[in-house]
Amino acid sequence: MRYQYTSPGFRQRFARPTFTIPSGVKLLVIINIVVFVLTELSGQRNILFSSFGLVPNQVWSNFKIWQLFTYLFIHGGFIHLFFNMFVLWMFGKDLEMQWGKNEFLLFYFTCGIGAGLMTVLFSISSIIPIVGASGAIYGLLVAYGFTYPNRMVYLYGLFPLKVKFMVLGLGVIAFFAFLSANQSNVSHITHLSGMIIGVLYIYFIFNWKNIKMEYYRLRLKNLKQKTSDQNDEEVQMKKKVDVILDKLNDSGWDSLTEQEEKYLTRASKQLFGDRPPN
Predict the structure, then answer these.
(1) pTM to 2 decimals?
(2) Which residues touch 141 (CB under 8 Å, ≥6 apart)?
(3) CA distances to 55, 57, 59, 189 from 62, in Å
(4) What whole-number distance in Å separates Cα of residue 145 and Cα of residue 166?
(5) For 2-187, which CATH class?
(6) What are the domain boundaries of the chain?
(7) Cα(133)–Cα(136) distance, rounded to whole angstroms?
(8) What is the DSSP-derived secondary structure letter of residue 277?
(9) CB distance 269 to 243 below 8 Å
(10) Which one-letter DSSP state was computed for residue 131?
């Protein structure tokens, strides 16, 4: 699958090379590669899979809770690792640059750990280790579909397809594969769970951010009307807030950087304290 940028907004906002890897994605890729190499060199692959892969029966009966986290960094082979890391880079880098490192990593691990938990609940007696970052990766694909629905990908380098239709197709495939494949080597429930958790996360976070956006608008809407008795620092702060609010009005909350969101919070507290908005 070959990826191609088509969004003018992306080109305007980011002047970075296509192959730039932001720090969160880079950290995940490095850890996954290091763990894979060490696993292959150890000669104890099966033992490591049983101890640190996701074994539903062990999580449930022996309380090996750490497996819900560690399974995300273990892969069954080079091809498995390569495709997961490729998709992580291809789609994750834009999300991290849009959201910021902390929120990106929170989303990634929420989807990955949540997908692992749902996998345990659906196959509670299974003793087969489940490995790989696919649950988190499928969550990222959902987030990308929500964030950049009309960007184009080229399936097999030939067939143009909007991201939203690609993600929808992957969801349908994962759903029917989960219903039909009893002895598959692929954990389709993990893929499907990652997508479901991604949808829920995006839905609730999106609504929460809209609430926050309305709150800030209400709290800061009268900044321009109160400059006569303010010092220069407050005047400059209000000017910067105006710029950020204009950006909110034009492009929505998701267009703000992490620094801009924090600045709004700080400005709101500094200018109004505990007073209610007018």
Answers:
(1) 0.70
(2) 87, 91, 166, 167, 170, 195, 198
(3) 10, 8, 6, 22
(4) 8
(5) mainly alpha
(6) 2-187, 204-272
(7) 6
(8) P
(9) no
(10) -
Q: What is the pLDDT of residues 189-218, one digit of tens each?
A: 899 999 999 999 988 876 676 666 666 666
Per-residue model confidence (pLDDT) at position 200: 92
- Sequence letter at residue 67: Q
SS3 state at 186 = coil
Do 3 and 90 form a contact (C-beta atoms < 8 A)?
yes
> Which of 101-105, 187-191, 224-228 comes out lowest in average pLDDT?
224-228
Residue keyed to tokens 């620092």: 233
Q: Which two tokens stand for residue 106?
A: 């929170």
* The one-letter amino acid at 107: F
The yes-or-no verdict on residue 180 having pLDDT over 90 is no
Residue pair 39/48 in contact (Cβ under 8 Å)? The answer is yes
- What Å distances lie between residue 139 and 4, 95, 170, 206, CA to CA? 20, 12, 11, 15
Residue in this structure with the two tokens 């998709």, named with its chain if needed? 87
Instruction: Find all residues with CB under 8 Å of 132, minimum gap 6, and list them.
Output: 71, 72, 74, 75, 76, 80, 84, 190
Residue pair 99/107 in contact (Cβ under 8 Å)? The answer is yes
